[in-house]
Design a protein that fits this description.
It contains 7 helices and 10 strands. The protein has 222 residues and is of the alpha/beta class. The chain has one domain: P-loop containing nucleotide triphosphate hydrolases (Rossmann fold, 3-Layer(aba) Sandwich), CATH 3.40.50. Strands 6-7-8-3-9-10 form a 6-stranded mixed sheet. Helix 5 packs parallel to helix 6.
């Protein structure tokens, strides 16, 4: 489903030197996998996540989503593919404070002409019910717990029924029990719905729930 071939990502620094965040990375992720990308701070895992999630493009190498070479897409086509292909879950939740829980979940649908707002609302309410948040639909993010905010973020990631869920340190701001509940939710989504899930983390205990672990250090797969 995802294929990276000889991907390098470089940045030109003010000192006129070049920093290689990724170095000749090749990997593939198949549909239905539960995978982690694990590495310490500065290893390149966030850069790799941005490229897999179509938030950034490589300096060199090829990235394919299914059979599509993303280098052939213009900005508008890339945005549309990202909106449909991947749902993001972040450590900081990234909910919009002025939007209700329901509106936050519906947010990705507002950038897609293929789904009506009525249909998006029905989907959002169904997801909130499933995640035990139906009674919080009209609440604002600052009125619910951290665990409830992260479940809201997961519901938002699922609203467009994406092929991939990409989670960046999804338990980093949660206590251990709530974090475990969130990880169990990812396992359930993978097992019952065959969702493809990639978790980016520095924590070996988080990575332990995944069947495949991609270790990265100094911009290279190790």
């Amino acid at each position: 489903m995802i294929s990276l071939s000889h991907v390098t990502k470089s940045y030109n620094l003010e000192s006129e030197t070049t920093f290689h965040a990724l170095r000749n990375v090749s990997l593939s992720i198949k549909s239905g996998e539960l995978t982690s990308i694990i590495g310490p701070s500065g290893s390149g895992k966030s850069t790799l996540m941005h490229i897999i999630g179509l938030l950034d493009l490589p300096t060199q190498g090829t990235v394919k989503i299914n059979t599509t070479d993303v280098a052939t897409l213009n900005d508008d086509e890339l945005s549309k593919l990202r909106n449909k292909f991947v749902g993001f879950v972040f450590q900081q939740f990234n909910l919009i404070p002025k939007l209700t829980v329901l509106e936050n979940v519906m947010l990705p649908s507002m950038y897609n002409q293929e789904i009506s707002q009525s249909e998006a609302k029905d989907r959002a309410l169904e997801l909130l019910t499933r995640f035990g948040l139906r009674d919080k639909a009209l609440s604002y993010p600052n009125r619910i717990s951290g665990g409830q905010q992260q479940r809201t973020a997961i519901a938002r990631a699922l609203i467009m029924n994406p092929q991939l869920i990409l989670a960046d340190e999804p338990t980093g701001n949660l206590d251990s029990k709530t974090g475990k509940d969130i990880l169990n939710l990812f396992v359930e989504l993978n097992k019952k719905e065959k969702r493809t899930i990639v978790i980016v983390t520095h924590d070996s205990m988080v990575a332990a729930i995944t069947r495949r672990k991609i270790h990265i250090r100094d911009g290279k797969i190790v």
